[in-house]
Amino acid sequence: MNHAQSTGELSRKHAASQLGDELVFFRQHRHEWLAAHRGEFIVLGKQTFGGFYKTYTAALQAGTRMFGLVTPFLIEEICEEVQ
Fold first, then answer.
1. Fewest beta carbons less than 10 Å away: which of 44, 51, 62, 63?
2. 33 assigned to some structural domain
3. Mean local confidence (pLDDT), 39-56
């Protein structure tokens, strides 16, 4: 693993550690959302619900508008299995 890969991995782990509450919330409510939002993407950040979006790109744009480029936020697809 080169330095850039190592730095990227550390950044992802750091962001994931900051989004623990959001990930728990997503996992707790995912089945409730399946009927109406299957295949859509949800945005969660700073313990804030950011909405459902039809595409990952739309979710990313909305998350960036809501939380900026520095504050981590979670984008997850509403589907049967959690990755």
1. 51
2. yes
3. 94
